[in-house]
Amino acid sequence: MELEKRVQESTDRCVYEEEETQVKDGTFRHNNDSRGARLDQVQKKESIINKSLDKLKETSTDVLQGTQLLAVDVAAATDLLRRGLIGDELAEKEKQALRRTLTDLASVVPIGFLMLLPVTAVGHAAMLAAIQRYVPSLIPSTYGRDRLDLLRKVEKVKEMEEGSLNETSEE
Fold first, then answer.
1. In the chain, fewer beta carbons within 10 Å around the N or the C end?
2. Which domain holds residue 27?
3. DSSP characters for 54-78?
4. What are the residues whose beta carbons fall under 8 Å from the beta carbon of 90, sequence distance 6 or more?
5. Tell me: the pLDDT tens digits for 36-53?
């Protein structure tokens, strides 16, 4: 980032010096073009910043919702585990949910450890990309695209139901 700033400042100085030279020579051809180029550069920077902010918001939302899903799964698994320990027979689907949650909890530990390592943001992104590509089962299922999309659909349905209930109560 610092390197990009320095390069940009150097480029701006060169353009500014070129404009001064042109003014001294009495030629104004590049003056408007360079301002247009600067405007394009500013717009590109703003676009990149907006895209980065959007990506950051999206990722933050995914992490928050994945953590909430994990908490819900842990609560349900605790209940299932308690039932199993007191002697109740668990259905196959309940056993699978318990296994999935225990696997997710076991995979949170190494991922959390890797994210706490003192590495740059690029290093963290590279680690996550490598994990997603070579060991995708290490990422907890609650942070997976399928479960997050399902959660978002359920939330939309709840919002629609609340909206229709509010409309009927107002009438």
1. C
2. 1-54
3. HHHHHHHHHHHHHHHHHHHHHHHHH
4. 80, 83, 84, 98
5. 555 566 666 677 787 777
